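tokens incoming
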């Protein structure tokens, strides 16, 4: 049976506001049971084992966790394998650009939401270990969009989604008990914030490609959004919080921006950590201004300003330092980059490859030993070694 996804007219305040108090009943019930029947140390140990185990065997966990994993082993019956294949072909062609867009558009889109960003600041994961968190986020993108990622019980994305959903529930359980948590923030990891994050991976990422001049067909847009409709469903996003089509997704992003965007110290903290992480990943210092330049290009000056991302030297003085290897941008005037989509497209492609070349070797401190990209994708993108 096809789900009831939402049309563009659905995203009213009267509909979205109550969703800030709604979590994920399935995963929340598992976590509530675990915390009521096990010690905090044992729950922490179980969650750690779940994360560290690439393909967790349900029989090794408490029955309620085993049942939870089994319930999510199969994709919904409305999932269209041909659309999944088409979406993964988009990633095959534009992966380096999409990974850079994730860093410089999708994640900042999330951080400019002044209420949703609070839970990230409170858990401290990004500010204390920004590289690890960003790699985990990028790994989810690669897992979902790699061939076979959503297929079969051993599909890497399937297991990753199961774990992320349970971790979201654990965060809801713990953070809502924190005395400093404010009612105005809503329930931690609530339905509006979940669907906002889903939009960052889907419509916002496609919009990023469009902004740099990549023209996808209607079928490719539809397929890519369908793939993330599946992910949202598996992550516990309510079906009536998932857009039905491109127009609905665009309208939802606009509604979230209208309702949630604003300056706050936490958003600036997260963005500063993100920029620092990207700078750390990229070799040398020739790329240091690139993250800020691209964030301003994608978000626009007003929203980038909410995150504390100000004009860079590249915009102010037209420095030509990036015209040297490895970019070779062909003589473009860098002060005009933010007004020149083709130049930004070249920049995104080449810096994206440099970024991937760097992060494939970064240790992940106890999780998977490295950021993992399937061999066939690395060969397609030409990112098999550091050059």
């Amino acid at each position: 049976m096809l789900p009831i996804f939402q049309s563009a007219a659905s995203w009213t305040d009267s509909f979205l506001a109550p969703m800030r108090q709604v979590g994920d009943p399935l995963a929340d019930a598992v976590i509530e049971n675990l915390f009521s029947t096990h010690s905090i140390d044992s729950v922490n140990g179980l969650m750690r084992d779940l994360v560290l185990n690439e393909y967790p065997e349900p029989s090794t966990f408490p029955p309620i966790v085993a049942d939870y994993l089994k319930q999510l082993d199969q994709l919904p019956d409305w999932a269209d394998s041909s659309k999944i294949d088409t979406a993964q072909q988009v990633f095959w062609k534009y992966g380096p650009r999409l990974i850079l867009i994730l860093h410089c558009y999708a994640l900042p889109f999330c951080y400019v939401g002044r209420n949703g960003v609070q839970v990230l600041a409170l858990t401290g994961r990004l500010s204390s270990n920004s590289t690890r968190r960003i790699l985990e986020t990028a790994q989810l993108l690669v897992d979902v969009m790699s061939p076979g990622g959503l297929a079969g019980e051993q599909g890497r994305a399937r297991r990753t989604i199961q774990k992320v959903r349970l971790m979201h529930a654990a965060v809801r359980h713990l953070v809502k008990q924190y005395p400093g948590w404010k009612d105005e923030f809503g329930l931690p990891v609530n339905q509006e914030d979940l669907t906002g994050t889903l939009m960052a991976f889907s419509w916002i990422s496609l919009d990023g490609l469009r902004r740099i001049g990549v023209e996808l067909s209607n079928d490719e847009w539809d397929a890519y959004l369908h793939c993330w409709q599946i992910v949202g469903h598996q992550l516990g996003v309510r079906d009536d919080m998932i857009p039905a089509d491109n127009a609905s997704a665009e309208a939802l992003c606009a509604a979230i921006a209208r309702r949630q965007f604003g300056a706050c110290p936490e958003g600036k903290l997260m963005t500063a950590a993100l920029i620092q992480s990207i700078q750390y990943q990229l070799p040398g210092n020739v790329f240091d201004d690139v993250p800020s330049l691209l964030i301003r290009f994608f978000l626009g000056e007003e929203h980038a300003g909410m995150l504390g991302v100000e004009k860079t030297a590249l915009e102010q003085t037209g420095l030509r330092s990036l015209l040297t290897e490895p970019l070779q941008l062909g003589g473009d005037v860098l002060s005009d980059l933010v007004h020149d989509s083709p130049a930004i497209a070249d920049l995104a492609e080449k810096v994206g490859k440099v970024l991937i070349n760097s992060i494939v070797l970064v240790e992940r401190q106890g999780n998977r030993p490295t950021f993992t990209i399937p061999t066939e994708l690395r060969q397609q993108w030409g990112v098999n070694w550091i050059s």
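note: The CA atoms of residues 98 and 205 lie 7 Å apart.
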